[in-house]
Amino acid sequence: MTSEADASEGSTAEKVEVRGIVEKDILDEMKTSYLNYSMSVIVGRALPDARDGLKPVHRRILHSMNESGMVHGKPYKKSARIVGDVLGKYHPHGDSAVYDALVRMAQPFSLRYPLVDGQGNFGSVDGDSAAAMRYTESRTARFAMEMLEDIDKDTVDMLDNYDGSLKEPSVLPSRAPNLLINGSSGIAVGMATNMPPHNLNEVVDGVVEYMGDPSIDTLALMKHVKAPDFPTGGIVYGTLGVYEAYDTGRGKVTIRAKAEIEEKEGEKNRIVVTEIPYMVNKSNMLQKIAELVKAKVFEGISDIRDESDKDGLRVVFELKRDAIPEVVLNQLYKHSDLQTTFGIINLAIVDGQPKVLNLSEIIGCFVDHRRDVVRRRTEFDLNKAKERLHLVQGLIIALDNIDEVVKLIRGSRDADSAREGLQESFELSELQAKAILDMRLQKLTSLEGDNVRNEGEELKATISDLQGILDSKERLDGIIVDELLELKEKYGDERRTDIEENAEEIDLEDLIMERDILVTITNTGYIKRIDLDTYKTQNRGGKGLRGMGFKEEDWVVDMFVCSTHDYILFFTSRGRVFWLKGYSLPSGSRHSRGKPIINLLPNLDDDEEVRAHIKITDFDVDKYLMFATRKGTVKRTSLESYSRPRSTGIKAILLNDGDELIGTSLCDDTDEVVLATAGGMANRFRVADVRAMGRNATGVRGMRLKDKNDLVVSMAVIPGSDQQAEENGDEDEMEEAQNDDSPVDPESGGPILLSITENGFGKRAYAYNYRLTKRGSAGVINIHRDYIEETGKVVRVLVERPDSEVLLISQNGMVIRTSCDCIRLVNRAGKGVIVMRLEEKDKVMGVALVDKLEGEDDACDMEEGDGVPGAKEKGDTSEEAADTGPGK
Fold this sequence. Notes:
Elements: H1 2-19, H2 26-46, H3 56-67, E1 77-78, H4 79-89, H5 95-106, E2 116-119, E3 137-140, H6 142-148, E4 158-160, E5 167-169, H7 178-182, E6 184-187, E7 192-195, H8 200-212, H9 218-221, E8 235-237, H10 240-248, E9 250-256, E10 258-262, E11 270-275, H11 282-294, E12 301-306, E13 315-319, H12 325-335, E14 339-345, E15 347-350, E16 353-356, H13 359-400, H14 402-410, H15 415-426, H16 430-438, H17 446-471, H18 473-491, E17 498-500, H19 508-511, E18 516-522, E19 526-531, E20 556-563, E21 567-572, E22 576-581, E23 595-596, H20 597-600, E24 610-616, E25 624-629, E26 633-638, E27 650-651, E28 661-667, E29 672-677, E30 681-686, E31 700-701, E32 712-718, H21 721-727, H22 731-739, E33 752-757, E34 761-766, E35 780-781, H23 785-791, E36 794-799, E37 804-810, E38 815-819, E39 833-834, E40 844-851
């Protein structure tokens, strides 16, 4: 028995191998198959492309109609013929799916700007279905031709159809931002899209505004794209949901029917509805209202009449004599489909992946697509013009040498020998020689010869113009804008859907919830905001949350909590200041990098950099801003002078030629300022020594530079340091510190200045060691000139914060992070210690103070007498590295 069983198993195995059967776990197979099916539905059927706003079936219908000549201006064709062409050529699915998509594109109550011009019964707002496809006729609408324009100029990629026999477009060139103006809806596997239609005039204005300023925020865009504009009219009630949808990609918009109360003396009052919410079935709505009247939910209604006709919709609600019309209307809004909610989900396919998009991102996808289309179209026209010019130049050569050409051709045995003879005799290409042989005799006339030469000159001008478009982003964008404005002129119309504010929604900014957010800024200039609720409070011993994942050369240089209504002021090297509200900063997750600050600030010059940022809750008249420039100029201006924001920025300080802003900081009369130069000098003086001046002033001398090649590299503000020392009774000790190069006794406390040089040296010294001088003086020695050659020039001087760490990055991208406590306290003129060991010719490029990570221990690995940190990178343990100054 055993041998028989073994033999049976062996034969089975042989059969399995021969038949090519592969054993698989059914659970794994179901998972894989369902995932493949899901992605096929998401990408290939249910969701629109962000570029042309079409699903594959709609795109295939329009392309097939265009190919077959069923276009605007030509006779209508049976819808059944169109459906058959689409099924046979591009869309191998059910005919009902294709016809339903065709019908919806022809319904003026479904699409704001219909793409199909239908003849026959294509359904109604009452929910009546369209007639069978054998009875209706169709052709593309005039507007749809704008979607197909230039498709024959290699403007989009063409893909194989389902059987590889034909080519179909992966996307339409689409001059119109169809995704916004017509919207879309669809249900995929595990996700859905529901995008409302908009008014073409508003969308075009929004796109043009975006192209002028890609960093434009949602509120600014909403000055143009105010709210959805539905083909059935109605009222958008309240704009909070609109803002949320435009800002995040998801939101709920309340839509009300447009109703009027008619009051006549001696007669019953009535409510007349002339427009209903989008996608509401009128017949079903009236039936449900009638049932509610019978159920005495609406006790004030005596009769309901549908008086709609070919001139428009009209529904009349007759009221009882004792009924209050306003109360009944509010009841209708509350309990019937006269008020509905449109849940916006801006989900579309971007680069082959489903993505939820805000308003700015939707416009950005369309603009990028149009730039690609116009560029490819221009390249196509340029190549055609060059090819034609090549042939024309050959014809001109032939005309200039007509006798020799005729003689050569007559003396040739056949066409091939004539072509070869022309190529050799006149150095022509094969194409030029063929064109000469194909030239008609009428070209030999004087007039035709002049026409050929004129054509050559026109082609050269055309080629120059087309090349200029490809070489200039401004010209290319200008063409896109001109085409959009042309669309607006041809198809633009007034809004159909009114916008009505809630009593509580007077100012849109007031609708934005005031909540705390966490703002992070990296050394490479990326910024983002995170809701503070993301970081939940944890008990001691918790693991915490993973922060954002950066590239190796990125780190957070500033992190602060502010309100969504707070201002963030950004100061640039050119002396300009820009404002951003907290809510206008890009929202991100804990793991995202955010967006570059320079992309959020309009009109920045190429070499203009953001040098400082300050959070402002209110523009306090008692607060000031202190500015410092490379050449030692300082300026103090009341914070109130910057209380009138402008999105394009304003002048913060007037700079002299060749000068630039290096730092800006908040201060008051009790503070002190330290200016530090690259050559190792530092000047400490009182803020009160700098008189307050206007916003457009240049400022006054803050520090005299002894060396004409020296520059101020850093400004640090010390909060009320000398007053604090006096209050602590340390006047004698402070005076001694100001007149002696020895360090202050550590027990006296006080602010500490941290200096970092380009060769990786660092030092800490009490601020009181730097003698308090007057504004405009040369200051005192920060790093002795004897050490500058070894340490390199000063890069940054900072006021140390408790429990802070210092981050250094070099030109070669090396990064080190170490606790400030690991850097020895030395006297004012000391050299300091090596903080970062650099490779040859490498220099420290950036320095930042960051808060110590929670739960992180200091690990300096410092030996006795050594001042070299080893917390994150092993330092130098040599005696020279621990040198503390000339008096050692």
